[in-house]
Design goal:
It contains five helices and ten strands. The protein is α+β, with helices and mostly antiparallel strands. A hairpin with an 8-residue loop joins strand 2 and strand 3. Helix 3 packs across helix 4.
Length: about 260
């Protein structure tokens, strides 16, 4: 029996008011808010699948979900309807009808996360919810040197939560790029997958290098040790944003290309 039409929806959200993406009983989550609104719209239970979970306080510029509609508005219309119905901190950006072979999580080819540090002497009233305020000077060249050791395929056990649920800790990191924007430093990580807290621990380690408290040439040793205690602190969640998700060409490649907007 057909499940109806499969919709791929691209969402942006301010993670400040959410306890992460995945539904949790009694807590406000992205998945929970979206599923509840779809149920109110259509009077049936709609299961939403995401490209991955974001933790409490983490933002998204382009989270991707899919769900099957037994009936209801077209994909284009769905975006406009949901924009009127969802809260302001959860923004539907784009939607498309896809075939049943598409899966928001399992069809992913590559993801990009961006972490933002605010290096100004005083925290920004605008950016404080979207950046880690770090007024201490950082050695950017040392951080870039350290980042080069992270590229490629590695076992990232040292750079994920000690109790991360994934058994296989091998991931491929294709790009680590540093961008300055006034007093802000953006660090972008692009790879085929990320472990729990991985980007935040990578950032904490790079900041440790930037402060002169770790040597760039020790990164390979930390990787090889597979010991979380050797890496840096876990950077705060509010500086992290799921920036983009990429799928095979038949499913549209990168789901969004809107410059540097949030």
């Amino acid at each position: 029996m057909s499940r109806g039409r499969r919709i791929r929806l691209v969402l942006g959200y301010d993670g400040s008011g959410f306890h992460g993406f995945a539904r949790q009983e009694g807590l406000r989550t992205v998945q929970g808010v979206l599923e509840d609104e779809l149920r109110r719209m259509l009077s049936v239970e709609i299961a939403v699948e995401g490209s991955g979970r974001t933790d409490r306080g983490v933002h998204a510029r382009a989270q991707v979900v899919h769900f099957d509609l037994p009936y209801g508005p077209s994909a284009d219309r769905m975006v406009h309807v949901l924009r009127r119905r969802l809260p302001a901190d959860l923004l539907p950006r784009d939607a498309a009808e896809v075939d049943e072979g598409f899966h928001a999580r399992f069809s992913v080819v590559r993801k990009t996360y961006r972490y933002t540090l605010d290096l100004s002497p005083l925290p920004s009233l605008y950016w404080y919810r979207f950046s880690w305020h770090h007024p201490e000077p950082l050695d950017l060249a040392a951080m870039q040197e350290a980042a080069r050791h992270l590229l490629g395929e590695h076992d990232f056990t040292s750079f994920c939560a000690a109790d991360a649920p994934q058994q296989d800790k091998v991931r491929r990191l294709d790009r680590v790029e540093f961008r300055t924007d006034g007093s802000r430093l953006h660090i972008e990580f692009e790879g085929n997958g990320f472990l729990q807290y991985m980007v935040r621990i990578l950032v904490g380690t790079l900041v440790k290098v930037g402060r002169g408290r770790e040597r760039p040439d020790r990164i390979p040793l930390i990787l090889e040790a597979r010991d979380r205690r050797l890496a840096g602190e876990t950077a705060p969640p509010h500086g992290l944003c799921l920036w983009n998700v990429e799928y095979p060409p038949e499913y549209g490649g990168k789901v969004i290309d809107l410059g540097d907007d949030l």
